[in-house]
Amino acid sequence: MNTKQVGDKLVEYCRKGKNMEAIDKLYSKDIVSIEAQGGPEMPAEMRGIDKIRGKNKWWYENNEVHSATVEGPFPNNDRFAVKFHYEISPKTGPNRGKKTKMDEVGVYTVKDGKIVREEFFYSM
Amino acid sequence: MNTKQVGDKLVEYCRKGKNMEAIDKLYSKDIVSIEAQGGPEMPAEMRGIDKIRGKNKWWYENNEVHSATVEGPFPNNDRFAVKFHYEISPKTGPNRGKKTKMDEVGVYTVKDGKIVREEFFYSM
Questions:
Q1: Cα B62 to Cα B30: distance, rounded to the nearest angstrom
Q2: pTM score, two decimals?
Q3: B116 in contact with chain A, both atoms CB, cutoff 8 A
Q4: Structure confidence at residue B42 (pLDDT)
Q5: In what order do the strands lie in the sheet with B27-34?
Q6: Are B86 and B101 in contact (CB under 8 A)?
Q7: Region class of A123: left (phi > 0), else alpha (psi between -120 and 50), else beta
Q8: CB contact (8 A) between residue A74 and residue B119
Q9: Smallest Cα–Cα separation from B108: which of B38, B52, B67?
């Protein structure tokens, strides 16, 4: 698959809420993930598919997702961008149960038909 | 200005349609600009603020902008992303006068309070 095709697949999975399946099918085992900001459960930079699976599992276990809107993919050579809009309620922490809007941009790098890098842009 | 402040300023200028002023005020003279795809009037990679001014001038002279929606900035360390939605009509070429929607993501890199790199993600 070329970059655009990988992007189309990722967006398709994310629209269906199948984000874990997107990781299984589209991510390289050597994936590098860069968050805008780290935290105790989620360092800003993580490497390897097991860590990325763990991070996503943690996020889904700790947030209730009310709705997700996914725009894209927007390609540029070996990369593509995706715009996400979520409405969530954290299940833990100071904002527990509080409905929150989240907007973020993901930039993904593709090599040999697999996503090798994901970078997330958002305000905290 | 830090990355977030530069991003806020850029979004403010773009929302007012003052994109040329954004370049004058926020861009480094050594700016590097990467488009998703190049063309005869617009190579994919351009360097230096005069070339970038020329590119933008060309684009505005050759497209009528009906509306522009700007979302962001979405920061990540020394970079920020912005999501643009335009409704334009090209003034020349095969789609002359045809109202067209354009969605794109810009990723900007900031160094010493100035934008040193811009990268645009979109489908053609």
A1: 25
A2: 0.93
A3: no
A4: 77
A5: B45-47, B27-34, B114-121, B100-111, B79-90, B63-76
A6: yes
A7: beta
A8: no
A9: B52
